[in-house]
Amino acid sequence: MHFLFGMFVGIRGLRMIMWTILLVLAILHRASSHGIQPLSRIAIHKATLALDNLAYVKASPTVLGLNGQNTEWVTVEYSSPNPSMDDWIGVFSPANFSASTCPAENPRVYPPLLCSAPIKFQYANYTSPDYKVNGKGSLKLQLINQRSDFSFALFSNGFLNPKLVAVSNTVSFANPNAPVYPCLAQGKQWDEMTVTWTSGYGIDEAEPFVQWGPKGGHQQHSPAVTLTFDRSSVCGAPARTIGWRDPGFIHTSFLKELWLNRVYTYKLGHRLFNSTYVWSQEYQFRASPFPGQNSLQRVVIFGDMGKDEADGSNEYNNFQRGSLNATKQLIKDLKNIDIVFRIGDICYANGYISQWDQFTAQIEPIASAVPYMLASGNHERDWPGTGSFYENNDSGGECGVLAETMFFVPAENRAKYWYSTDYGMFRFCIADSEHDWREGTEQYKFIEHCLASVDRQKQPWLVFLAHRVLGYSSDLSYAVEGSFGEPMAKENLQKLWQKYKVDIAIYGHAHNYERTCPIYENQCTDNEKRYYKGTLKGTIHVVAGGAGASLSPFTTLKTKWSLFRDYDYGFIKLTAFDHSNLLFEYKKSSDGKVYDSFRISRDYRDILACTVDSCPLTTLAS
Question: Do the strands 163-167 and 48-49 form a parallel or antiparallel pair, or are they unpaired?
Answer without folding.
Answer: parallel
